[in-house]
Design a protein that fits this description.
The protein has 314 residues and is of the alpha+beta class. It has two domains: 151 residues, 4-Layer Sandwich (Double-stranded beta-helix); 135 residues, Clavaminate synthase-like (Double-stranded beta-helix, 4-Layer Sandwich), CATH 3.60.130. It is built from nine helices and 18 strands. The strands form five sheets. A six-stranded mixed beta sheet has the order 1-2-15-5-18-3. Helix 1 runs parallel beside helix 3. The longest helix has 13 residues. The protein is globular, with a radius of gyration of 19 Å. The two termini are 31 Å apart. Keywords: Antibiotic biosynthesis, Dioxygenase, Iron, Oxidoreductase. InterPro entries: AlphaKG_dependent_hydroxylases (IPR050411), TauD-like_sf (IPR042098), TauD/TfdA-like (IPR003819).
Amino acid sequence: MTSPTTTSLARLDAGPTPPADAAEWLTGHLDQIRASVAGHGAVLVRGLGLDGRAAASAALRQVIGEAVTEREGFAPRDRHGDGVHSSSHWPADQPMCMHNELSYAAEVPGLMAFACLTPPTRGGVTALADTRAVLRDLPAELTEPFRRDGWLLTRHFNPLVGLPWQDAFGTDDPKAVDEYAARNAIDVRWDADGGLHTRQLRPAVVTHPGTGDDCWFNQIAFLNEWTMAPEVREFLTQEFGPEGLPFNTFHADGTPLDRETVDLINEVYEQHTVREPWQRGDLMVVDNIRMAHSREPYQGEREILVGLGEPFRP
């Protein structure tokens, strides 16, 4: 029987009226915010009155600490300063399943923050799940090989599907990509037409640097072919072949995951998921190691800015 969820979201109210300067208010409450994140894994600050991208960006920079520059992204983002971006431009009718941000990279953000400028009319929740509880409740026969050997991510960058490698790596120089790959334990293969294939092996279970807890820290299910919409998977497979999918995940030795395994991982995430609908001006600060997050389908306009900070090498 699955244990009750341990996922929780602390709350902090900025007051009956928004502060005149949200970033200044956050400076005075930063210790309280960090303590809430340490105790609960995430905190929602409500009532800040963030009324534009400049105010939201300043608030995010105030709470994320040392900024992390995103590399190896999967979907386009708009940049709003060091460590601050728009949320990923991902189709509104398709979910972004539970994952830890940049958990396929050699250096990851230990902390994330989200600022809501425009809440959607329906859906669009950034949900959370405690990765300690997910690890605890997944079957040991599933987790132990990943704990021991890690997980494998493959990507195929081509001009027709997904994010171009130039955007993912922040350069149009193939030699710079090769150098980045060498520094970050990524195997690369270039096609004659300029397409890029990459393979990287990453840990699936990470010890939290602050608490010492083991956390299910990866994107094994999110970036797997079985999590794609069936019609999208079928089209991409027919068009580019199984090795031409824009991304896929495997056991460390390259053995494919079956659908039942991927579905089970997503089911256990769901059992430990908490949701809070966005309100305009919300700020949510999240421990990216302890908490996985998702983005649910939505209707209407939605604008969330994201801050990435506190670099950590698992």
